[in-house]
């Protein structure tokens, strides 16, 4: 199977970008990171990508009079690099319906909550305010509606007494770094595919496991 050419779109440091690059360097990974593109020429992630030997490009949104003209330049750059899939990794631009629909089924994003809970921003603060006992992250296909695309993969972490936004975010980002490469692998090797607006999986998984929160509850029952 030929490796799928992937572009990562960033606006800043590119934390998840580095984990995607590392995963793609492993033998047998079905995707190659062919381009890291940023709307900010000074994005730290561009330097980090160059250091990793990845082609980089800046398409500065400030140089374009409209969102549409910026996205046309973005699209042209992606087509010129023969990109098959896009991974958004801290890309801080709201994309128009035109761009999203042009890349429908070929663009994915990672969001720091268990969607459909806590769409948008400030997810960790809102999780703590709501008093949920589990939180996490989601990889999904991008659709015009914000954070509403078909879900590819999720990872769950416990919310523990005394958590702050910072401590909860630190726990979630560890899972983001693990989950995003797994999800990219799944859509590039055909394990997960988009069909009629839903993600269909080529194989099942063990449905017997469960996360118990609080963790001591299960021990108390068994004693």
TrEMBL record:
One Gene Ontology term from the biological process aspect of the record: 'de novo' IMP biosynthetic process
Formyl transferase N-terminal domain ranges (all copies): 5-184
A Gene Ontology cellular-component term: cytosol
GO molecular function, one term: phosphoribosylglycinamide formyltransferase activity
Keyword Transferase set for record: yes
Signal peptide: none
Pathway per the UniProt entry: Purine metabolism; IMP biosynthesis via de novo pathway; N(2)-formyl-N(1)-(5-phospho-D-ribosyl)glycinamide from N(1)-(5-phospho-D-ribosyl)glycinamide (10-formyl THF route): step 1/1
Family recorded in the similarity comment: Belongs to the GART family.
Name this polypeptide is given: Phosphoribosylglycinamide formyltransferase
Source organism per UniProt: Microvirga aerilata
């Amino acid at each position: 199977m030929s490796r799928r050419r992937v572009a990562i779109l960033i606006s800043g440091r590119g934390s998840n970008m580095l984990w995607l690059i590392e995963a793609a360097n492993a033998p047998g990974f079905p995707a190659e990171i062919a381009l890291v593109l940023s709307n900010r020429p000074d994005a730290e992630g561009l330097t980090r990508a160059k250091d990793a030997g990845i082609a980089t490009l800046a398409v500065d949104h400030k140089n374009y009079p409209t969102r549409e003209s910026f996205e046309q330049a973005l699209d042209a750059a992606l087509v010129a690099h023969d990109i098959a899939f896009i991974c958004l990794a801290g890309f801080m631009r709201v994309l128009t319906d035109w761009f999203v629909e042009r890349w429908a089924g070929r663009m994915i994003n990672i969001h720091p909550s268990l969607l459909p809970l806590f769409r948008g921003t400030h997810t960790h603060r809102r999780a703590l305010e709501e008093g949920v006992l589990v939180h996490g992250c989601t990889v999904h296909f991008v659709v015009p509606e914000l954070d509403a695309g078909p879900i590819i993969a999720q990872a769950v972490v416990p919310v523990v007494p005394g958590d702050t936004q910072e401590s909860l975010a630190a726990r979630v980002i560890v899972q983001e770094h693990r989950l995003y490469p797994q999800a990219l692998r799944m859509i590039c090797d055909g394990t997960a595919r988009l069909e009629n607006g839903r993600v269909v999986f080529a194989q099942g998984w063990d449905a017997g496991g469960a996360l118990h929160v609080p963790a001591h509850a299960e021990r108390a029952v068994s004693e």
